[in-house]
Design goal:
There is one protein chain. The chain has 384 residues and is an alpha+beta fold. It has two domains: 3-137, no CATH class; 244-383, Histidine kinase-like ATPase, C-terminal domain (Heat Shock Protein 90, 2-Layer Sandwich), CATH 3.30.565. It is 54% helix and 20% strand.
Length: 384
């Protein structure tokens, strides 16, 4: 799957799953809150029943007033009786900060019920019943709600993935068609490009003839086509061919590639500054190294200004290629490495160079950084 397909699929899934999970979370929260209130109401109803039972007991005590009074206690709940002035008379608990304006209320982990006694029994006007909230049904409700969210999350993630693949199917088909076209085109380009370059080298080596300038232009055009062919072939075979990781002398390879690009450099009359530390060794497949270096040089030359500077710096831990050409706008730097993305369309090209560099960097876990400002210099740094 190409990066563009992955980005489209990820964006679709983010939108789909975030909206779906938000709706389901809200629905589950509303359900949980409603059921929680139902459970609390049922426990409040039990307090009402207990208050009625306690009232009946007080009525019986009122009838037997001449006997010894014993306040009725119950291990399942706490209670207390208060007079008309809301002063404590007796009970199993002397409550503090009573919310007299409410009939039912909750404080921390306890439920409270204020029951009015009428007519008065033994001077009691109010009975307050309290009991710890029974957490077991609430915990069970929470487990069911979370389990529902988990199962729904899995089902809707699978559905989202299926819908996402349907969503990107037309894009995938278009990319496959384009890749097939590129494959066929590159196959047809290989032979004539090789023939042109070989004959230009022979003419330049064996014969002394007029039209040297015209020959250089043909050579530049042919090398541009050759690099395009090699880049397209690399994109096609990148994930399939066997890589031969070996110790490459990057210092020497850079010198060779600078010489390869000398015709292009001279055509723009660029001033080349080389700061290459000798014998820098890097373990890498040679074809990957060539694609990385060639695309660095090609972009630095293509997007440089005439009579500009091409500055190449090689250190043991990094390579920097700097030009003082068109530059890149800050808002475009983040997307410039995407395939077929070009910051400047005036210079032509397919927008695959930085994508190839990015693939090589990612494969070998190098660090890739572009530092640029519009209409100023651009610095590309690769660290290993």
């Amino acid at each position: 799957m190409f990066n563009s397909e992955k980005r489209s699929l990820v964006r679709f899934l983010l939108i789909y799953l975030s909206s779906t999970f938000t709706l389901f979370f809200l629905a589950t929260f509303i359900f949980y809150s409603f059921q929680k209130h139902q459970i609390i109401d049922m426990q409040n109803d039990k307090l009402l029943i207990q208050a009625e039972e306690l009232t009946q007991t007080l009525r019986q005590l009122n009838k037997t007033f001449d006997k010894k009074l014993i306040y009725p206690k119950n291990n399942n709940y706490d209670s207390a009786i208060y007079n008309l002035d809301k002063s404590y008379i007796f009970g199993t608990s002397d409550y503090q900060n009573i919310q007299w304006e409410k009939e039912y209320y909750q404080k921390k982990d306890k439920l409270f019920y204020i029951h009015k006694v009428f007519p008065y029994y033994l001077g009691a006007r109010y009975i307050i019943i309290s009991q710890k909230i029974d957490e077991s049904p609430l915990n069970q409700l929470l487990k069911i709600s979370l389990l529902f969210l988990f199962i729904a999350g899995i089902l809707f993630s699978l559905l989202g993935l299926f819908l996402g693949k349907l969503f990107i199917a037309p894009m995938k088909e278009s990319i496959q068609t384009m890749n097939k076209f590129i494959e066929d085109t590159t196959h047809e380009l290989n032979t004539p490009i090789s023939t042109i370059l070989t004959n230009i080298e022979l003419l330049d080596t064996i014969y002394t003839c007029e039209g040297k300038q015209e020959m250089k232009r043909i050579e530049i055009a042919s090398k541009t086509l050759s690099r395009l062919y090699e880049d397209l072939t690399y994109l096609k075979l990148n994930h399939n061919y066997h890589r031969n990781i070996e110790a490459i002398n990057i210092s020497q390879l850079l010198e060779e590639r600078i010489e390869y690009f000398i015709t292009l450099i001279e055509s723009k009359e660029l001033h080349v500054i080389k700061e290459l530390e000798p014998n820098i060794i890097l373990n890498i497949d040679k074809n990957d190294a060539l694609r990385m270096i060639d695309n660095l040089f090609s972009n630095a030359i293509k997007y440089n200004k005439k009579w500009g500077t091409l500055h190449i710096i090689l250190k043991p831990e990094q390579l920097e290629v700097i030009n003082d050409g068109l530059g890149i706008k800050s808002e475009e730097i983040a997307e410039i490495t995407n395939r077929f993305k070009r910051a400047n369309s005036s210079e032509g090209g397919f927008g695959i160079g930085l994508d190839i560099i990015g693939q090589v960097v990612q494969r070998y876990e190098f660090k890739f950084e572009i530092i640029s400002a519009h209409n100023q210099q651009t610095k590309v740094r690769i660290q290993w």
